[in-house]
Specification:
Length: about 325
Amino acid sequence: MKVLGIESSCDETGIAVYDSDNGQIWQRLYSQIEKHREYGGVVPELASRDHVVKAAPMLVDILAEIGSIDDIDAIAYTRGPGLIGALMVGANLARGLGWALDKPVLGVHHMEGHLLAPMLADEKPELPFVALLVSGGHTMLVDVRAIGDYRILGETLDDAVGEAFDKTAKLLGLPYPGGPELAQLADSVTQSRFEFPRPMTKRPGLEFSFSGLKTAALNIVKQNEPLSEDLRAEVAFAFQQAVVDTLRIKCRRALAETGYQSLVIAGGVGANRRLRQVLDKSTREQNARLYFPALEYCTDNGAMIAYAGTLRLLQGQRDEAVSDVLPRWSLESLPLL
Ligand code: KG4
Ligand code: ZN
């Protein structure tokens, strides 16, 4: 079965086709980052408008490569969570196509897309596993007992990890979204004279809090202004170290609590090289294994939506005749596969 996947929950337009017979993927990805950069963050109305302009031509382009629209058997789109206007663009495109072509349509949970993205790799994690979902909007540890059987073990009480990366990057004068650039700056040095806290690691539990790190960064920056290039790199290094260390401690705890042998890391921050290295070492020490998606499937993309949709569509799941997009949508409320 060939499934078209449409992702438009935030500032990336992702169009992909996944073929469940052989695992082949065709994809197009367009990032709106340049459009939002001058505002220092995503402007929802601009995001919706840009999805409208880009999605249909990207679809035409990908269909030209795979053959024709008749080769598509079903359509999956991101139903939520995300920006309401942006979600509606993808949802309307999917439903319009489904109606015109008389093909089944299914709305997919964006975080389930991220969560299952490591299944697109050659080495797939075995169920059950613990998933660390770290993106610009979410930070959570999930007990994945089966596909669709999700229990949230811990979430952030304030900022998401990606958000903390982006805000700290902004303090250091890096352009939006600064996560990858802060990481690059941090990797340019091997030590730092600064030390950031490891929030909520001393008490038991699997909740996170990252807003304090941004405040700590602000204080350091103020105390050391004007920051030399070396000092900026040292702030970035100490910040990244604190985030990675905090995530390591919580992942270790989650594996010990569940007794599972697999840890899956997904979401935009999952692209962080240092985080991958540190989690790989720490899971090995626990006789467990770390799985992560290819870099291109870490940040938002259409392939992960096509894949998650395929699993559910193959089981006969479909949208109801009338279904709204869901800007807020609990991962725990999804139906079992
Ligand atoms: O999953 P994603 O593409 O979008 C959301 O659903 O939020 O994640 C984007 C987030 C941004 O905050 C970005 O700065 C962060 O992921 N990010 C990184 C890295 N690459 C992307 N953060 C740290 N290190 C990276 N290498
Ligand atoms: Zn995402």
